[in-house]
Design goal:
By secondary structure, this protein is of the alpha+beta class. The chain contains 4 helices and 11 strands, in the order H-E-E-H-E-E-E-E-E-E-E-E-E-H-H. A hairpin with a 5-residue loop joins strand 6 and strand 7.
């Protein structure tokens, strides 16, 4: 499968934090608040910028494509790097309040994942990082923050 095949087959749309997505289940489609799920695809030139979720857990599941690095900064400033691929981790759990971002480090192809959020995703619980704030809190991760934030 190619990028365009997946976009068409899965009905993916541009995502506000980078890449493409389609919500499969949750608040917007069913009115249920217990869990929400999406397909999410990054291409070689896309990034998922640093963001965090308040009061909810997010789980990423690898489906296809290039290995994907997920960078997680916990509240104490500890950085964890998770590599999603068939040769590494197949799923990663992101706890509430952790800043996280993702990219395909090979800068080739695409990576298709599924994401589940519980309780269900809501933009009220979503926060995009401000570069200046993250740099002030976690200056030890300057290069990563510079590369994976928009402002």
């Amino acid at each position: 499968m190619t990028i365009n095949n997946y976009i068409e087959k899965l009905g993916l749309l541009p995502h506000p934090e980078g890449g493409y997505y389609r919500q499969l289940y949750g608040n917007d489609t069913t009115g249920k608040k217990d869990i929400s799920t999406i397909y999410y695809m990054l291409t070689a030139n896309d990034i998922s910028v640093f963001h965090r979720l308040h009061g909810v857990v997010e789980i990423w599941y690898y489906h296809d494509g290039e290995p994907l690095n997920i960078y997680v900064i916990d509240e104490d400033g500890k950085l964890s790097i998770h590599k999603l691929s068939t040769d590494h981790e197949m799923q990663v759990v992101i706890m509430p309040e952790q800043w996280f971002a993702a990219e395909i480090t090979s800068k080739q192809g695409f990576c298709l994942v599924g994401c589940a959020v519980g309780p269900a995703f809501s933009f009220e619980n979503f926060e995009l990082a401000k570069k200046s704030n993250l740099l002030q809190l976690y200056s030890q991760h300057k290069e990563l923050i510079e590369r994976l934030t928009k402002e």
